[in-house]
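$ ./design --mode recover --in tokens.txt
reading tokens...
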């Protein structure tokens, strides 16, 4: 949206998808079981990889093949962003607590960025995950080029359906943001439209009420409608004064609890000051 991750304000007359990598959460909080629950969670932190050539050759080959099969002539529009390497065996030992929490921990978790500005997509980050044998566990992108083409080539139709739905529901038609949403059940990307309904702007906080609408072009209809609430802090960091009010040691690490106070500069009334003496 019009938040810290968008480089420039959203233009409703020329909408562009901008969904970059924003440090997606990893699986380091999953415990191995009750015996390990009190252990340091950072022991399960994955290894970060920033270069594609640092991954095992087998994983690089499989990932490249998967992307080429999916995107075909558009494969060059995808670039590698980063990866995480886990040790799933550390999560699954002694007890069945970790196995029963419905989280599928991959061995290799890769992130790629799809960029196609001519089709309104500046950046769209998606995940490709593998187990230790190289089997694909997750692929948050259309597997077949036909599904991707159907989404990108027919944006105008999706916008038409969204506008008709907004009008029928009597929502405010203030186009606020545009995103893509992968649907695992259909294997395609759907257009996600945001419409601003209400905004409260105070000196320190900005609050918005938004309608999020998802359009499925295969079904030719709106398949999802939800009200969202957004709150953002408008106070610059240099206006905050941080004071440590409590401190403790946990697993060898110093943890501080900070109190944050906001320094407010009162505006000066220039007319209240006497005029400088004449030389």
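writing sequence...
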């Amino acid at each position: 949206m019009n938040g810290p991750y968008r480089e420039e304000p959203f233009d409703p007359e020329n909408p562009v998808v901008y969904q970059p990598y924003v440090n997606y959460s990893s699986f380091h909080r999953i415990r191995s079981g009750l015996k390990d629950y009190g252990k340091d969670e950072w022991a399960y932190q994955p290894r970060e990889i920033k270069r594609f050539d640092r991954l095992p050759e087998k994983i690089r080959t499989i990932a490249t093949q998967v992307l080429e099969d999916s995107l075909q002539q558009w494969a060059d529009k995808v670039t590698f962003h980063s990866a995480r390497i886990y040790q799933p065996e550390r999560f699954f030992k002694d007890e069945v607590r970790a196995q029963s929490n419905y989280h599928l921990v991959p061995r290799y978790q890769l992130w790629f960025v799809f960029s196609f500005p001519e089709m309104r997509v500046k950046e769209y980050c998606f995940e490709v995950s593998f187990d230790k044998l190289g089997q694909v566990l997750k692929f948050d992108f259309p597997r077949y080029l036909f599904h991707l083409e159907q989404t990108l080539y027919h944006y105008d139709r999706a916008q038409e359906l969204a506008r008709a739905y907004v009008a029928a529901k009597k929502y405010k038609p203030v186009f606020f943001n545009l995103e893509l949403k992968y649907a695992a059940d259909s294997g395609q990307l759907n257009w996600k439209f945001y419409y601003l309904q209400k905004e409260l702007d105070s000196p320190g906080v900005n609050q918005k009420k938004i309608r999020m609408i998802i359009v499925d072009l295969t079904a030719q209809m709106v398949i999802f409608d939800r009200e969202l609430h957004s709150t953002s802090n408008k106070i610059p960091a240099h206006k905050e004064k941080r004071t440590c009010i409590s401190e403790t040691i946990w697993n060898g690490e110093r943890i501080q609890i900070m109190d944050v106070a906001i320094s407010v500069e009162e505006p000066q009334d220039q007319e209240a000051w006497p005029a400088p003496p004449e030389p």
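exit 0
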